[in-house]
Amino acid sequence: MNARPIRCLVTAGPTREFFDPVRFISNPSSGKMGYAIATAAAQQGWAVSLITGPVALASPAGMEVVRVVTGEEMYTETAARFPECDILIMSAAVSDYRPKQQATQKVKKHELGMTLEMEPTRDILKTLGWQKVKQVVVGFAAETTNVEHYAREKLAAKNCDYIVANQVGQAGAGFESDDNRILVIGRDGSQQVFGPAPKTALAEDLVQLLSDVLHSQRQ
Ligand code: CTP
Fold first, then answer.
1. Is the CB of 151 under 6 A from ligand 1?
2. Separation of 122 CA from ligand 1 center, angstroms?
3. For residue 26, how far is its CA from the centre of ligand 1 (angstroms)?
4. Which residues contact 3 (CB under 8 A, 6 or more apart)?
5. Closest CA to 42 of 67, 12, 63
6. What residues act catalytically?
7. What b-and-e string marks burial along 61-76, b requiring 16 or more CB atoms within 10 Å of the CB?
8. Whole-structure pTM over 0.85, yes or no?
9. Which of 37, 89, 140, 152 to mutate to test the pocket of ligand 1 (most atoms within 8 A of CB)?
10. N or C: which terminus of the chain carries fewer CB neighbours within 10 A?
11. How far is CA 161 from the centre of its chain?
């Protein structure tokens, strides 16, 4: 019998990549799903660290909340806690690209070209997925088409144990909405659909599924 609480890392929200002090590249992630997952995990008695990009949500009680802005900051805070965690849930919508150059002063309109040179950001999930020893690693796949196909590709490429796939870009689902439908695919071949339902209910279902997985591992 192992009495130590499950240590859980949840990332949430968008990241921002600035090209000058007042302008950035980002995405419309609200953070609602990640915050709901962190809350459901804390309610299970897990020791939760929530690493969050900029969102308009209040910090949930009963957990460590770490606020970050850029993808590299999210990577640093997540990687620092990863070796000691039992489960990583990467629900953040990390900006895939960042401007190659960041001006230290505001760029004036007449100096700003119409083309912004970009470079990829570090893939946090992929980096940590391939470093895992015994952690359960859960990724997310937000897709507009071929949801299951792309989700399976990400599960393998990022060495996840589970991938939570959802369709975005439609009214009433995904990024900014309160409701969602998720498909949870396991590397063990399992597949489950939850919803359409409020993100809070989906988060509870997902955490329950992961709790069962972690408890069966501990036996
Ligand atoms: N992710 C990450 N670091 C990044 C980009 C994404 O950790 N720089 C994580 C997300 O948190 C999510 C998963 O990877 O759990 C899937 O992200 P997504 O953007 O959908 O996948 P990509 O690998 O960026 O693929 P594509 O943009 O081609 O769909």
1. no
2. 10
3. 13
4. none
5. 63
6. 27
7. eebebbebbbbebbbe
8. yes
9. 140
10. N
11. 14
